[in-house]
Write a structure and sequence with these properties.
Elements: E1 6-14, H1 18-26, H2 28-34, E2 39-42, E3 49-53, E4 59-69, E5 73-80, H3 84-87, E6 92-101, E7 104-113, H4 119-141
């Protein structure tokens, strides 16, 4: 982006209801199935912490709940914890928005950081499409599309 920021925007339509998709996004036992064994731990309260852990308990990302408006919108302050060069970029912002759309739900992910040419945004640009493809497949067919 020309203004010294980097961004990733992804839109996907999933044949489900907003409530079912919201549950899939916020329930650890379901997210683990499409997010390659990762689990989000949080109380989903604005101002509260969140973290993304793998099955072995290793923390990959942390942050804060900035906005939480069921079943429409989640905004997260997002800090990567595993790769030093990504952590050094500082916190990013990830918004997750749901909007009913003709028998489906439009899911929009917008991940941004106040840094030009961000390696974090480059990394999430590869991860989000895989995660969301699995989410869509799991909800619509009962099976994930991609294994790790």
């Amino acid at each position: 982006m020309a203004d010294g920021k980097s961004a990733f925007l992804y839109v996907i339509y999933i044949r489900t209801t907003a409530d079912e998709l919201w549950s899939a996004l916020t329930k650890p036992e379901f997210s683990r199935r499409y997010w390659f064994g990762m689990t989000v731990e949080t109380d989903w309260k604005v101002g509260g912490p969140w973290r993304l852990k793998n099955a072995d308990g290793q923390i990959f990302d942390t942050g804060e709940i900035v906005a939480f408006d069921p079943p429409r919108r989640i905004v997260l302050k997002w800090l990567h914890e595993r790769r030093p060069e990504l952590k050094a970029e500082g916190p990013a912002r990830c918004s997750i928005e749901l909007e009913p759309a003709e028998g489906a739900v439009k899911l929009t992910i917008h991940h941004t950081i106040d840094r030009a040419d961000s390696k974090l945004i480059e990394a999430v640009s590869g991860g989000w499409p895989r995660i969301l493809s699995n989410l869509k497949s799991l909800i619509e067919t009962g099976k994930i599309a991609l294994s790790q």
